[in-house]
Write a structure and sequence with these properties.
It is a single chain. This protein is of the alpha/beta class. It folds into two domains: 138 residues, P-loop containing nucleotide triphosphate hydrolases (Rossmann fold); 238 residues, P-loop containing nucleotide triphosphate hydrolases (Rossmann fold, 3-Layer(aba) Sandwich). It is built from 14 helices and 20 strands. The strands form four sheets. It has a five-stranded mixed β-barrel with strand order 16-17-18-19-20. A hairpin with an 8-residue loop joins strand 17 and strand 18. Helix 12 packs parallel to helix 14. The radius of gyration is 29 Å and the shape is elongated. The C terminus is likely disordered.
Length: 451
């Protein structure tokens, strides 16, 4: 892929093979990729087999691998290619002792450098060899590729271990192989976030549920991240849809990232509440990015979100839900830094975020956001409550940074128009734990609809 990208009519790429598969077989495999251009073969991308040169006898005074060095240097100075690849460079070890290999690589790299040609060595090495082999001490750059088998989703990643004169992005960067070739998804935490978009001081946006805005003291502060937390079935996805539909009604571009429900399922769910998402999806006002479980990768998700934000004018981002991101993180210590970086990109894009998070239905949990509460400006709790021997739903504002808000617990129900907030509950027990609440409606209040 690099060879085809680097080649031009003026400066070609030369790909030397040692003892790998025959060129006919290699080319037949390349034909399945979009970057492959058969018309470039020979003139712009040339494959040369080094096998015969490697096995031929050298003169008594000729250095190890002398014929190979002579051939490559000749091509570099006569043809002046943009790129020369040796695949596999590790196979050269079979024709020279380890002590002499360093001198061979040094000699080759020094001579090729004067031709202004990039020399790319490809090989299969163990992690231990990366720190001890002569090839790596002499290289200007080292890119490590790895395949990590880990159920239920395997993962490919690369790391730039060395790049002289540059400051590469650190850490493991995910990559995938598809018909278009290799696509790299840079590790989000290593990318500098854009400066935070300017917004009017004190500006607020509507959540899509008028009563919730009232409880929050006038709505959500623009540019903030809000978490909707609760057990399965309490209405978290519904609140996220309220948030997005409100933005659509204000002619805002919105992004909905869903890990559980596909685009068609979200459209169907929204229709059950009387909202038509098909039209804004078709017009491009709403983008639904569905990530199936088998494709879940933090950096791939982040890359898709960054692309949408970079396109401009996205004002609302809903993510359903945080639990899948926790699962995708694999290294749990990575998640806080990733979530902080993601929030920074959303704010930098001028958008407000609403993220749902699952909690257990009945068991007590001290921290419903698994140590990530500090990342959110606002946290709204949805829980089950026992009222007169029936299981109902409740809503409360757990946290709002820099804003006063209602401190009570309100009964809520999911109806034909989405989530409706009803009367305040009194005598509620268990409000500070994470078990099911017990309470009864206020005697003074009547039902307070959501809209």
């Amino acid at each position: 892929q690099i060879s085809f990208a680097a080649a031009t009519p003026e400066r070609k790429s030369v790909y030397y093979t040692t003892l790998i598969e025959p060129h006919v077989k290699l080319v037949s495999h390349l034909e399945s990729f979009d970057f492959f251009r058969r018309e470039m073969l020979g003139e712009q991308v040339e494959f040369i087999h080094l096998g015969d040169i490697l096995v031929e006898e050298r003169g008594a005074d000729e250095p190890p691998l002398g014929p190979v060095i002579t051939e490559i240097v000749r091509v570099c100075f006569e043809d002046k290619p943009a790129l020369v690849v040796i695949d596999s460079a590790k196979a050269l070890r079979d024709f020279v002792d380890p002590t002499a290999l360093g001198l061979v690589i040094y000699d080759l790299a020094g001579k090729v450098a004067h031709s202004n040609t990039v020399l790319l060595l490809v090989g299969e090495y163990s992690p231990e060899e990366l720190g001890s082999s002569a090839e790596f001490s002499l290289a200007d750059g080292i890119i490590e590729l790895a395949y990590e088998a880990r159920e239920p989703v395997d993962r490919r990643w690369l790391r730039v271990r060395k790049l002289r004169g540059s400051a590469p992005l650190g850490g493991k960067h995910s990559f995938s192989i598809s018909a278009s070739g290799v696509t790299v998804y840079p590790r989000l935490e290593t990318i500098q976030s854009p400066p935070e978009a300017q917004k009017p001081v004190g500006a607020r946006i509507a959540s899509g549920i008028p009563k919730l805005d009232e409880l929050m003291g006038g709505g959500i502060h623009a540019g903030e991240a809000t978490a909707i937390v609760g057990p399965s079935g309490t209405g978290k996805t519904g609140v996220a849809l309220h948030f997005v539909v409100e933005g659509l009604s204000a002619s805002e571009r919105c992004l909905f990232v869903s890990f559980q429900e596909s685009e068609s399922q979200l459209v169907e769910k929204a229709a059950s509440f009387g909202w038509d998402l098909a039209i804004p999806i078709e017009s491009g006002q709403l983008t639904v990015h569905h990530v199936p479980g088998e494709e879940l990768d933090l950096d791939k998700v982040a890359a898709a979100m960054r692309a949408e934000l970079a396109a401009g004018d996205v004002r609302r981002v809903a993510v359903d839900s945080l639990g899948e991101l926790v699962f995708a993180a694999r290294e749990i210590q990575r998640l806080p830094a990733f979530a902080r970086a993601l929030a920074g990109f959303i704010r930098g894009g001028g958008a407000s975020a609403l993220i749902t998070s699952d909690t257990p239905t009945t068991s007590t949990v001290v921290d419903p956001l698994a140590g990530l509460s500090f990342l959110f400006h606002n946290i709204v709790l949805l829980r089950y409550v026992e009222i007169e021997s029936e299981t109902r739903r409740s809503i409360s504002i757990f946290k709002m940074r820099g804003s006063d808000h209602a401190k009570g617990v309100w009964q809520c129900e999911v109806g034909e128009h989405g989530l409706g907030i009803e009367e305040q509950l009194t005598g509620v027990s268990g409000a500070l734990g994470w078990s099911a609440l017990r309470g009864h409606p206020s005697e003074a209040g009547t039902a307070d609809p959501a809209r």
